[in-house]
Amino acid sequence: MSEARSRLLSTATRLFYSEGLHSVGIDRIVAEAKVTRATLYRHFPSKDDLVVAYLSGADEAIRGQVEQARNSGRSAPDIVRAVGKSIADSIRSEGFRGCAFLNAAAEYPAPTHPVHQTVVNHRQWFLDTVTELLAKTGETAPEPAARHFVMLRDGAMAAGCLTDPEPICETLLLGIEGILRYRDASIVEQAAVKTG
């Protein structure tokens, strides 16, 4: 990545996340990144391309956190807990302003828009990944459990920027623990049926 592209993307990322996608204009990004308009359009043919690049960077960061949890050598349930903890840590971080993807979907509601499609693709990947992680714990119904996990995450991301994040994060992590305990209870019940 060229230095100019990197500066443009880091400036856009900071401004888009803190102030919103539609409210930040190209002129401001160009001025704060200290590049010319021509340089911006050479790297990003339109503002939509820049927004998609911003979201793609957020997507890569989250994928990296999940991979780090996966490669940690932890048990399957502890990997699920680690993913939950990374979400809680982001909610507790300074300057937290909600989920970049939910915020983008609110600003770009048209289902066929490239920004909206980027959001949908990220969310599908996240749901598929959580489903896979829960399946590895022995969860017999990983898809509904994963949807539950994602709903907990979405609620925590929305509420975490509106009020004190600590009780929100506590509730999120307790909810994830509840999903894992429900799975444990189901496994015990199935074993009792088989041996009974």
Mean pLDDT: 93
Percent of sequence in beta strands: under 5%
Radius of gyration using CA atoms only: 20 Å
What is the CA–CA distance across the termini? 62 Å
| Helix fraction bin | over 70%
What spatial form do the alpha-carbon principal axes imply?
elongated
Describe it.
Residues 2-62 form the HTH tetR-type domain. Keywords: DNA-binding. It comes from Nocardia callitridis. This is TetR/AcrR family transcriptional regulator. Residues 25-44 bind DNA. The protein is mostly helical and 196 residues long. The chain folds into two domains: 1-45, Homeodomain-like (Arc Repressor Mutant, subunit A); 48-195, Tetracycline Repressor, domain 2 (Orthogonal Bundle). Helices cover 78% and strands 0% of the residues. It has helices spanning 3-19, 26-33, 37-43, 47-70, 76-92, 100-107, 114-136, 142-159, 165-195. Helix 1 crosses helix 4 and helix 6 (100-107) packs antiparallel against helix 7 (114-136). It is elongated. The protein starts with a helix and ends with a helix. The model has no long low-confidence stretch (mean pLDDT 93).
